Amino acid sequence: MMRYGRYALLLLMVLSSLCTPALAVPYSENEHAIRQAHLDLVAFTTETEMNAAITYIHPLYSTSTARLNALLAEFREQEALIPAATSRNDLENITARMRTITAGFRNESRVQMEIGHGKPDLLSRQVGAATTSNPHIGQREQAYWNIRRTNQIRAFDAWVKDAQASLDILKLQGFDTSAAQRTLAVIGSKRPDLDAALAAKSEDRIATVNGVISPLTRQLGAQVQEAQAGVSEAERMQFFVEQGYRAVAQADQINNDLIVILLDIGPPETTLRQLKIDLASLDRMLATGNLGMAKTPFLHVKKDLKDLSMAYRDTANSASLPPDLTAAIRAMVITLDNAADQMEVVQ
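The structure corresponding to this sequence follows.
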């Protein structure tokens, strides 16, 4: 039987990203559109909250809202850049600058509230009233869901198409792909469920569909690996390196989203940093051809994936986060666990 070529690895390389609410790895036009729409929604909501806070603080005795108004103007300047953003770096840079501005706004708000003896509960109530049932926020939220639905379904279709192409290559090379083909057919049949969940704007339903698809993708990966009995240990390890880098890119995006909300995210950041270090070490060892030396960083990467999964699980359970970000984190937990479990194939 012929050994499979490098293109056959494509099937294995895409398995871990299917179940995420926003397919972040590799970064694509679909993912960019979703991120851009989400940032637009979050930014406008934040602008509305800032404006409401200024409205409350301004009449308080001895207060000055000059600094707050200046920060709001700076924030709006960054917000205006979102529609023209064309890359992940563009969005990340805008987000970073907004993060700095909102941190300054919070600090100045606290100062002015103390000067004017403002009441935090009244401030919170006024800010809440400004955002609740706000038609402009509602329009942006609907736009976000429309874009997310269109692009996520498009990404799902592309994934299934790529997976099918990879199975076709394996079949032509003489591998028995019948079991994997049946599993892929089941995955493809979940498209209407995913589309319906997105149309309903239900994070719970999306998570349920992802929960069905995730074990199927894991099963598909195992079936492909079983069919490819002739794969060398070095090739398997290299696949895990590539899968690890995919997870890193996705985790980077999640951490960026977390930082905007939590500022100090703790374990997810430190654990991801360690994963990057160990992945680079494993990659270097494989480049030398010394598989024996690669075993230690290989085990470290496996542990890092599990540790990062646990860090995200704790964050999702303990932090107050937007529903879509919570869903993305929970999906990432599944992806990381699956990636770590698949590493058992290397002995």
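The chain has 13 helices and no strands.
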